[in-house]
Amino acid sequence: MDTKIFLELLCNNKGVSGYEHTLKDAIVSAFNEFTDDITVDKLGNIMALKKGSSDENNVKIMIAAHMDEIGLMVKDVEENGFIRFTNIGGFDPRTILGQEVIVHGKEDIFGVIGSKPPHLQEASEHDKAIKMEDMIIDIGYSKEKVNELVSIGDSITIRRTMANLQGTRIAAKALDDRAGIAAIYECVKELSKMKHEADVYFVSTVQEEVSMAGALVSSYKIDPDIGIAVDVGFGTTPELSKSDSIELGKGPGITLGGNIHPTLRKRLTEIAGEYNIPFQMEISPGPTGTDARAMQITREGIPSLVLSIPLRYMHTSVEVVDMVDIKHTAKLLAFFIASISNENLEGLLCY
Question: One Pfam family, short name please (predicted)?
Answer without folding.
Answer: Peptidase_M42
